[in-house]
Amino acid sequence: MFSVVVPGRPCLTDIVPVDGQPNGQATKFAFTIPFNPPFTDIVIFFLPGTVLPPNTGAAIYAQLPDPNTGAPTDFRFVGALANEKQSGIFNIRNPAQNNGNGRSEAEQEDEMLDEGSIASNGVVTLGISIEAAENIAPQLSALEAERAQNTSNSTALVTQSGSGSPQNPISTKVLAQRIIGSAFNFLASFAESDPSNKGHDVVPLKSFRDWWTKFERRIEMDPAFLERADPNAN
């Protein structure tokens, strides 16, 4: 009836019925998917010829391994399919964890992938349950509300973190002055008086090369150091 695709893996069709009805028609199915390498999204779709009974839908539930032990956690509703929507992409992460600690969604996803390596032998169990549409609708509404709340929280965090007074952009003139100042401060310690040149100070060319090498290394390690007030380039 259903097939599952994990990005980068072969299409899965080895669905397992997990219940039986008096008429012999199963209403609950499961896929067991290795969580190595970890993933966050799945695609589920009807196989050709699949038609659900009237006024029903296919509720999708995901059971992830515990990131520390690999033991299965509780099943969580992640979405639904219906005759009117026969395929979809589902995020198996818990929306309540997204942006819950001030980190971006990308950082949260990276963390999940890192934690997944801890439980490399764990599995994701995907449950598909044929249920009455009136039972699925409240779950969809709650899921959408949860996602909207987390999106709102994420936006608030971004706004709050960016509420400080913005720094004035550094002009080209100021940047040039800071580069020249960095060179002068470094080279001054190598200056020597040249009697043949009316006592004027001279600096060995090697000293300039040394400054340039050090300056380039500083730029690579800290590209924004010139934009900060009174940068210490020595």
From TrEMBL:
Where does the record locate the signal sequence feature? none
Q: Cite the InterPro entries for this sequence.
A: Hikeshi-like_C, Hikeshi-like_N, OPI10
Could you tell me where the Polar residues compositional bias lies?
A: 91-102
The GO terms this record gives for MF are:
nuclear import signal receptor activity
User: Where do the record's region annotations for Disordered lie?
Assistant: 91-113
GO:BP terms for this protein? protein import into nucleus
List the record's Gene Ontology CC terms alphabetically: cytosol; nucleus
- Limits of the Hikeshi-like N-terminal domain: 5-146
Q: List residues of the Hikeshi-like C-terminal domain.
A: 171-228
Q: Which family does it belong to?
A: Belongs to the OPI10 family.
This chain's protein is named Hikeshi-like domain-containing protein
